[in-house]
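Propose amino acids for all 311 sites.
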């Protein structure tokens, strides 16, 4: 097996996972929101023939978990920093995972925060596209209303069925939040879903569809690109802003861009490369943002502005 215990920190998770896909371990699973990493370490150690990926938005949790996994000597766990709503669909081969686990996701009870719930309907599509036929999604929560919502939302997808909802299940491992809620006498709900028909989400392959565009008019000046600074667009759930821009001695310009999709923030550069008859606009390779709707919209907005003959 390839050396593991690596944090990707978005350096190139797709490449790493592609390597894994070649090795094709017999069991492949993801834990979303692993917190202090107890469950990830436990399932990985208990199943040495499999590979277990953890996805977590909190850098502090990622750092703690990496230490935990390194100290345990467990060699088949890997950790990704980022938002699972996007990483699950972006990083893993389609229909590849046997299990996805979620232990006590933040329920985001307020209606205006509903889209931040990992289990919002867009996620269901991504989940169904990631699981193999027969694959399992397991979710634990202490919140009855949330459990009932998940029991409604997930099987609304034609490929997913609910197998069972267990009350106060006994498992080999309790997570930090599980211990906390049990000590407070709360009820715990375990929901198990199965993908029972093939489903391919039609997720686009980023490498095949790099964002780039040729502008066939005079290459903009740095002052023109700088004038975009502060332009902020989008809706509440999907926004972007253009910030500072820079020019190299060879005339290549970089425009700093910040995007937010449902609160998932990315910061990257768009590159404007002078050409004989205009310029090429493309994503700056080292920044490599995940190709979320806000990233695509920011890119398209820039291209539209640069093509606008009236400016
Ligand atoms: C309530 S804690 C539960 C932690 C752990 N699973 C446990 O049971 O002790 C929820 C965890 O999910 C993480 N989280 C929330 N939204 C996430 C998302 N969209 N992607 C990845 N992790 C997320 C949070 O940072 C937090 O660590």
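Proposal:
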């Amino acid at each position: 097996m390839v050396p593991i215990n690596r944090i990707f920190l978005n350096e190139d998770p797709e490449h790493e996972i592609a390597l894994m896909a070649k090795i094709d371990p017999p069991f492949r699973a993801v834990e979303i929101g692993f917190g202090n990493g107890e469950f990830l370490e436990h399932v990985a150690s208990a199943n040495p023939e499999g590979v277990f990926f953890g996805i977590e938005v909190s850098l502090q949790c990622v750092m703690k978990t990496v230490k935990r996994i390194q100290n345990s000597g467990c060699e088949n766990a890997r950790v990704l920093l980022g938002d699972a709503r996007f990483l699950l669909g972006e990083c893993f081969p389609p229909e590849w995972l046997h299990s996805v686990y979620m232990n006590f996701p933040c329920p985001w009870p307020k209606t205006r925060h509903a889209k931040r719930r990992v289990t919002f309907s867009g996620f269901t599509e991504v989940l169904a596209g990631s699981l193999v036929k027969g694959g399992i999604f397991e979710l634990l929560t202490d919140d009855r209303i949330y459990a009932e919502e998940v029991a409604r939302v997930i099987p609304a997808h034609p490929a997913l069925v609910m197998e069972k909802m267990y009350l106060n299940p006994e498992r080999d491992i309790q997570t930090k939040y599980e211990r906390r809620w049990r000590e407070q006498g709360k009820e715990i709900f375990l929901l198990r879903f199965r993908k029972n028909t093939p489903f391919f989400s039609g997720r686009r392959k980023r490498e095949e569809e790099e964002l780039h565009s040729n502008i066939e008019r005079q290459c903009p000046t740095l002052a023109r690109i700088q004038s975009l600074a502060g332009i902020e667009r989008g809706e509440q759930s999907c926004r972007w802003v253009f910030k500072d821009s820079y020019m190299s001695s060879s005339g290549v310009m970089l425009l700093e861009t910040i995007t937010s999709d449902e609160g998932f923030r990315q910061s990257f550069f768009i590159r404007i490369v002078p050409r004989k008859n205009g310029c090429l606009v493309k994503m700056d390779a080292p920044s490599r943002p995940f190709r979320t709707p806000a990233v695509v919209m920011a890119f398209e907005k820039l291209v539209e502005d640069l093509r606008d003959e009236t400016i």
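Confidence is low (pLDDT under 50) at residues 1-5, 204-208. DSSP finds nine helices and 13 strands in the chain.
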